[in-house]
Amino acid sequence: MFEDVIIFCLESGYEVWNLIVNYVYLQLGQSPDTFAGGSLWSIIAGVLPIFAGVAGTLYAFMVLLGFFKEITDARQVQVWDYVKIFAKAAIGNVLILNFSNIALQLFRSGGALIGLVGTPQALHTSLSDATREAISDTGWGWQILLILLAVVMLVVMVVTAFGLLFVLYERFIKLVLIVPLGIFACACLPMGMNITGQYFKNLISLILEGVVIVLALMLAAALANSGFSVADGLTENAMLQAVGRMFEACFMMIMTLGIVKGAQNITVRSLGFSL
């Protein structure tokens, strides 16, 4: 009887984890204009013309500043300097006018990459047979303690799973929020400032963050399903085996949540970005 309660708690925790992980994976493959029925993107799309109008004035000001910056000393001005001025102005103008479409294409490319990298099956985890056997071999007296541990594990699994939802929603809100600001970043390009480059670095790191999240979930699932445990070979005691494996499963989910929350930092450091 006690064994059934323990198994039920653990399986319920895994079921909630798998359900939310699968949902997170499916949503990460979406673009902000389709996430949540496009409700977030519709708000931003409504204010983009306002940002574009203000950015147009900023852009004209930056073109003048960039022009005077390049020709401060007329004796050193060469044809290439004029080419750079007009090239930056032209590129900045194109980016401002088409930034919404450019951002959406980048978002969709990131979503397509996520779909190619992972599959729902690769994210599935379950209670291992070794853990079931260890629980079954434990005496009924110790199983009472294991029930308490299983309840704690159930709570931890549910909390960490909902932590993944928090990361998911936070990521999409950040993606949508930085789109209007990108118009201002592009308006600074004629001045030769590094603002535009820094903005696109941040944008790319946010897009690739979804890929890192999926990879982290896949690696965690593969390690959890491998049956590997530090308790193997260290003790033959069924109680210690069961406790060790249960704690490892709990630790694995907490560690996965930590890696997922720091996915953008991993991307930034790996690509050498300095945000």
From TrEMBL:
Keywords for this entry?
A: Membrane, Transmembrane, Transmembrane helix
**What parts of the sequence cross the membrane?**
40-68, 144-166, 172-191, 203-222
The source's domain of life comes to Bacteria
Name of the protein? TrbL/VirB6 plasmid conjugal transfer protein
Question: Which organism's genome codes for this protein?
Answer: Cuneatibacter caecimuris
